[in-house]
Structure formats: C-alpha cells, structure tokens
Fold this sequence. Notes:
Elements: H1 3-15, E1 20-21, H2 22-32, H3 41-53, E2 57-67, E3 70-77, H4 79-113, H5 117-142, H6 145-148
Antiparallel strand pairs: 1-3, 2-3
Helix pairs in contact: 2-3, 4-5
Amino acid sequence: xxxxxxxxxxxxxxxxxxxxxxxxxxxxxxxxxxxxxxxxxxxxxxxxxxxxxxxxxxxxxxxxxxxxxxxxxxxxxxxxxxxxxxxxxxxxxxxxxxxxxxxxxxxxxxxxxxxxxxxxxxxxxxxxxxxxxxxxxxxxxxxxxxxxxxxxxxx
Length: 155
C-alpha cells in the first residue's frame, strides 16, 4: 500500500465526518493517530487538489483573506467520493480486523513465550477494554443485528 493511497483513504474517512478545510484534516489525522502521524501541509493540499481532479471532493466554501491573507477552502465529499469511501472502508475494514485478530491470537502469546508477561497482560487489558467499547458502539450503531438480517415477513 502506498503512502498516497493510505492518505487518500484517511482523508475520505475524515471528510465523511463533515466538510473540513486542510488544516482541520491535518489536526484530525493527528488526533486519530495519537500524534504518531503528522502529515505536512505540503502533502495534504496538493492531495486535496488531486482528489478534486479525480472528482472525489468538491469545494464546499471559500473564505477570502482568512489564512495569512489567503483563502480558507472547505472541502466536502462528492457522490463519487462517498462511493470510493464506501468501497475502501469495506476492503480496509477486513484488513484491519485481520491485523487486530493476529495481534490478539498470536502476538500476546508470543510476548508471554518470550518472558514479556507484564507487557502481554497490559496488552490483554487494552484489548479487553477496547473490545467492550467496540461491542457497545456496534450495538448502538448497528442495533440488533440478528433482527436486522432477518427477511421481512409479509403481515
């Protein structure tokens, strides 16, 4: 996976929350990655222009003289951007779930096998807490999945 492709997907993900300008996108990436990834403006703004050329984003608003005498441009997803976001989300969610499954099923055991019991326990606690939060979020967002997947019966 190339850096640019990952950044495009991440920007689509972020813009799915709400229309934003470039600096907001940079701040949101930093928040979501816990300051582990800090893309430069020199990466974000040309990529927004490229995404606009591809028809993934469009300009929602331009505020004149807002940024050092320049324009503050707010971007929003287009229908094509939403479709690309949807396709990538379905593909990448499997990738990330597989990776997290690998961590839980293999890495914790490997830590213990090599004498890192304290680290393995810490990771177990983190995974357990995250799983509880994930289940609560899934139930809140998805409702009763069994009922939702049942075919509609004629009344």
